[in-house]
Amino acid sequence: MRKATKAWHTFNFFNLLFLTCLALAMFLPFLNVLAQSFSDSQAIVSGKVLFWPVHFTLINYQYVFSDMSIWRSFYITVYITVVGTLINLLATASLAYPVSRPEYKGRQMVVFMVLITMVFSAPLIPNFILMKTLHLTNTTWALLIPGAISAFNFFVMRSFFMQIPSELIDSGRIDGCTEMRMVWSIILPLSKPVMASLGIFYAVNHWNTYMNALYYINKPAFWPLQVKLRQLIEADDISIDPNAAQFSSLLHSDPEGIKMATIIIATIPIVLIYPFLQRHFVKGMMIGSVKS
After folding, report:
1. Start-to-end C-alpha separation, the chain
2. 13 in a structural domain
3. 189-240 tens-digit pLDDT
4. To bridge 238 with a disulfide, which of 148, 232, 233, 255 should be the other Cys (CB 3.0-4.6 Å)?
């Protein structure tokens, strides 16, 4: 017994050590970017910045917040994240709930068709032709409609709905509830954990959308934040208005600080959402991933 206890403590020690190193490997690069965003450009170029700002300055954030093109991209990203997530959850629930009920006769065929999309995905060129034919290119709908339902999230939500007792649904029908009233008053309130979990997945996917925007959108006015960020990172220099006195120090300096500030602004909002949904997220993953 003592030997088993000692082995267990040894395992816990090395497991904690491994997870700590893994967490540091993920957090330290972010801390470095954060430090650079508050540092002078000369300090960044000379390699003096590690995990603490050198020659602390807010000029990088002042420039980013004064650039209307970045604000426009930020608005586009927030819009497709909020609207896209609502569309995703509505579409996924609308498909997952009927096929989770045994009285729906064609449910196996629908599940099989969704499963096929997980194995075989449409190539890029047919997708682009479809988007162009539907006149969705250069619109935000090209970032919202194609991925309205994720096959993986569909199966998670379907598994969750299948665990809701049939007696609860039958009692609602006996009390005279229509299907829509029953879904709204009974099913959805019970589905907060899985909705929060899948909502995070969908929201992060929309917030980080890049490839679809690159394929389907050519107008800078409709670029989301990630595409705008790519443009800033790849640019050799960033245009500074010579008449803007507050940015005169940036005219002949490297724009690395501006790039890092933009990265932080693009990262922080979606990170701040998780703590508010953590309880539902953990519960949703534990329940929605178990099939009865």
Report:
1. 36
2. no
3. 877 778 888 888 888 888 888 888 888 888 888 888 888 878 777 765 555 5
4. 255
pLDDT above 50: residue 103:
yes
Please give the structure tokens belonging to residue 187: 């099913």
Total domains, the chain: 1
- Structure-token match 């229509």, residue found: 178
CA distance 180 to 173: 11
| Within-domain flag for 68 | yes
Instruction: Quote the CA–CA distance of 242 and 285 in Å, as a whole number.
Output: 53
CA distances from 192 to 172, 188, 202 (A): 19, 7, 15
7 is a domain residue: no
Distance between CA atoms of 144 and 135, rounded to whole angstroms?
14
Residue 12 vs residues 2, 3, 25: alpha-carbon distances, Å:
15, 14, 20
> Rounded to whole angstroms, how far apart are CA atoms 183 and 93?
10
pTM above 0.85, yes or no: no
Coil, strand or helix at 50: coil
Please report where in the chains the tokens 């047919």 appear, as a residue: 126
> Given 3-state DSSP classes, what are the helix, strand and coil percentages for the chain, each rounded to the nearest 5?
75, 0, 25
Phi, psi of 35 (to 5 degrees): -65, -40
Are the CB atoms for 39 and 53 separated by under 8 Å? yes
Asked if the structure places residue 128 within a domain, the reply is yes
Using CA atoms, how far apart are residues 200 and 198, in angstroms rounded to an integer?
Answer: 5
- Here the tokens at position 185 are 């008053």
